[in-house]
Design a protein that fits this description.
The protein contains four helices and seven strands. With 158 residues, it is an alpha+beta fold.
């Protein structure tokens, strides 16, 4: 954990803890954040923890940000195909909620040899020919929601 005047970087700080201890630590972090006006860069794979602790979320795939948004907006309306797949994996406690699990084909490419074009194109059901050639830029959508996907470009020539 690195500490600066206004930024604390935490990499999976609660992943190995018992759930009750995890909740206490997360509540403490939120209290400290509010009391001292701290900014956390919280790196985690537990989407429930990310949703609880975060104001804004950046979703990364092979080291690249593919979506960045307000946490509530992202969890309500994910745009990038990878983010949608991640969100579909979150279990719901609501038995009436029917969600369609998005299964990704293939294997994650080696981070040492990221394929040309969009890094997600090898696993994306919506991949188009230009996805294999050019990496999309991080494009602003609405109110601070950014996505890196050719589906949201005005044209394939971007």
């Amino acid at each position: 954990m690195a500490v600066g005047p206004e930024l604390i970087i935490a990499d999976e700080p609660v992943s190995a803890l018992d759930v009750s201890i995890q909740a206490q630590i997360l509540n403490l972090l939120k209290d400290l954040q509010e009391e001292y006006g701290l900014t956390f860069l919280f790196i985690a794979h537990d989407l429930g923890v990310v949703e609880y602790i975060s104001d804004r979320v950046a979703v990364m795939y092979l080291g690249r940000v593919v979506e960045l948004a307000d946490a509530k907006m992202l969890y309500r309306d994910a745009k990038h195909p990878y983010t949608k797949a991640l969100m579909s994996a979150i279990p719901s406690l609501d038995p009436t909620r029917k969600s369609q699990r998005v299964l990704l084909p293939g294997d994650v490419p080696s981070p040492a040899r990221v394929p040309p074009g969009c890094p997600f194109h090898t696993r994306c059901a919506a991949a188009m020919p230009h996805c294999r050639e050019r990496e999309p830029r991080l494009k602003p959508l609405e109110s601070g929601h950014l996505v890196s996907c050719w589906l949201y470009e005005d044209s394939a020539n971007g």
